[in-house]
Write a structure and sequence with these properties.
heterodimer, A: mainly beta, 0% helix, B: mainly alpha, Leucine-rich Repeat Variant, globular, Telomere length regulation protein TEL2 homolog (chain B)
Amino acid sequence: MALPPPDPQFVLRGTSAAVHTLHFSCGGQEPDIPILFSGSENGFIHVWNLKTRRVDTALDGHGRNSVYCVETMGSKDRLLSQGRDQRICLWDLAEGRMSVTDSVFTENVGFCRCALLKVAQGRWLMAMASKALEEVQVLELPSKTSVCTLKPEVGAKLGMPMCLKLWQLSCGSQPLLLAGYEDGSVVLWNLSMGKALSQLVCHQEPVMSLDFDLEKTKGISGSSEKVLSIWSLNEQQHLQVYRTHKLVNAGISDITIRPDKKILATAGWDHRIRIFGWKKMKPLAVLDYHTATVHCVSFSDHSQPSERLLAAGSKDHRISIWSIYNTQT
Amino acid sequence: VCFTLGGSDCSISFVSHVLGKVCVRGRQKEMLSVLVPGLAELSRADCIWQRMCWRLLECVPERWMEAVLLGFLQTAPGADDLSRLLGNLVVKNKKAQFVLTQKVLLLQYCHKTAVLQNLLGYLSLDPLRRPLLVTVLQELLETWGSSSAMRHSPLEQQQYISKAILICLSHLKEPEIESCRQELLTSMMEGVKCHLDSNLPRIRRLGMIVAESISVKINTEGPALKFQYEEDDEVRELKSLLVQTTPCSAVPSLPDEEENEEAAGLPSASDSDQKSPTAAPLLPAEDSDSELDSDDDLIPYDMSEDKELGTKAPLYLRDCMEVLTGCEDVDKWEATVKALESLIRKNPAATREVSVELAKILLHLEEKSCVEGFVELRQRAQVAVLTTDPIPVAQYLTSQFYSLNYSLRQRVDILDVLVLAAQELSYPNSHGKTKHSVAPKPGIQLLPGSDSSKDWRRIVDERIKSKTRRIATLVSRLCVSLGQAQVELPSGPNEFNSVAGHFFFPLIQHFDRPLTTFDLLGEDHFVLGRLVHTLAVLMYLAVNTLAVTAMGKALLEFVWTLRFHTDSYVRQGLLSCVSSVLLSVPAEHLLEDMTEELLETQSWLGDVVEKDPDGDCRRLALQNLLLMENLKKKLPLSLPS
């Protein structure tokens, strides 16, 4: 007899706008407080204290334009946020400060979230959609120098890049970029050469979100249709479709794989969060709390597995926090 | 019968006389079933036998020619055999021509399709005879297209003529069609108009098939006429007549083959385009990594609530009404339409407040988006409103039936809804939840939306059967009922009782008043037919109500005024009305209050049984006469018959 799905552990209210992006920063030791960053449509980035479950600070750096990406760079004092004002801002939040230290003007009016990768101490690579329609530009931070510009070949008709993921197999090896495009294909780019290594048509509709498991070199992408596509990368750096999974309702806004690679969560347009086992895509749970489309899901990075949380931000202005499948090693 | 071949001239005329006499006496079958195959066999090989056969037939006296020819038509194995046997008899002999081109085709209709095939094939096989084929076709089309012929000839004759037309078409060659193309077109247009105007679906279908076939023949390039109708055995049989399978047929088969090849070539070309070069091949899902299956430790939660997301319908009736009248949101509109019936039934008090308005909205509701089963959903909602608040809604609907500016579909909808609601009201405990009502007596189920008149005919027939049997088994029934306890069926008050009159009388009131857009007695005889059938059903359902006698009297008068209507569907309806009256009104009331009407009706029924061209009408009239006989037997009190 299957148990009914669990309720959220708690729900964060107070953003008073649709929540587009979430990022946990809970890895620190005591007395560091676990923090959740959320970006909303009204341009604010809220810093939630997960102990008191209240907003500690609200950062206003994008001129009331929707913030659709927040990431931390190394520690919770260094924050990166991307907004619809075509800017990526770097924040310094140490010791109570709330200042924007640097910003990058992307000239891109799309919704593609940027991707970050730490390549060395203090050096980051950031991939973002750039001014031209199909291009992805990779910058090095904090120097903001351009590493390369990835242009698909003429006539490829990929459309806008919709989602990006930077990764490298191990520290020091060449970084690679997975990009999901508007025409439904996922392309693997080699950054040092600036060339596409492989292209795979995963969906008939735009790829809304993707995530990649380094260890198994397997990835998953979700789109506006009813299908999730799981693909893998073989030794020749070639992408192949592994399997597909059909959903009950169409539309996925976000997919994320938990850091321990056991489960993954999808945020759906049908207001539901779905949990699957990553190994075999076994459906595990359907979390039905929100009353509007869920825009983002994120897993926390607690060092204690039992404390791990899942957060989901939705158009109904709520952030639901769940504790699910974390009762084992 | 052996002939001596002596080289001398034999006189065959004696044999012809014998043959003629035998055939006229009715012994065609026995004689010709032996003679004709033998002759056919012999004449295939030998020309002399052919000529002898021709001579034989030419010498048959005129008065016996018809019988002989019919016999030959029926027993000949095929058109080419017939051609060898008859030769050009039809051209040389006037009587033979009359029989073959006029009598068999236009005046008789009892013959099988094989006879038609033989006859028309025979006409097509010789250049001397082909002009006759064209004339025959033109005459057939004239008869087919004449509306008076259609009204007065039975269905079987119309089928016969249609078959003959189709076979003729299959034999004609291009140049011949060219020469009479214009006439074919004119006759087709006229004929199709009369056929589509008919109320009987089979006649409409016949018209459609023939018109399609003619249009295919005369329009070799460009799109041909195409109608929509149900395919069944009859249709398939008719269509098969268009294609001649005999080798010496005139229809060229080469263009057909070319067409088939082209059609086969196209799909294969489009298939190869569809393979997209960039789609990667699928790897087989590897189930083999089951060594460390830590997924098994993850127990899934209950996901049974996970269903397709749909827009929620409003929960209140007035909200529904708002959505239906003004809402632009198509999803919401769809959800409302689907949920409406159950809302109406769950909230009778709320429904009664807004019943007339809701009925108005539903009557005018048009399909906004492609909802499955929209017509049925709307009808069920209307029935629900009507049964919840019968009197005001019935008054509204019946008044709208006779108002200006409604489409025929809407008027017929009103009638259907009245019938279904009456059925629901009169059979207690059958809530509209189940589509079928379990009637305590005949257990025939009515599917809303289907052609109700056929089903009701069945129900009435069953009722009649059960009534006529009752007299025979009356004694045995008495014994049974005395001996055993009866099983109690669940019963409730008959709700139709109080409202039957409101359903019935307004419908019958204004039928003879024509409006600018609606003339029951004129063009809109289809609606008249449906109205009459509806009245029959309402009458039937009004059994055991207080108003039944008044209703019966009014209905018999109504029937009397319309009894000579030219449309057979209407007449069938009128006869059903009479059946319903005879079944529903208690016998005492019938005999006391309606004696004159009954007598008049009886004499009319007798007339119908003998003279009506339509087979169904005759059968119904006969049933009614039987019912009347039973009435008389029931009450042996005075009734001058």
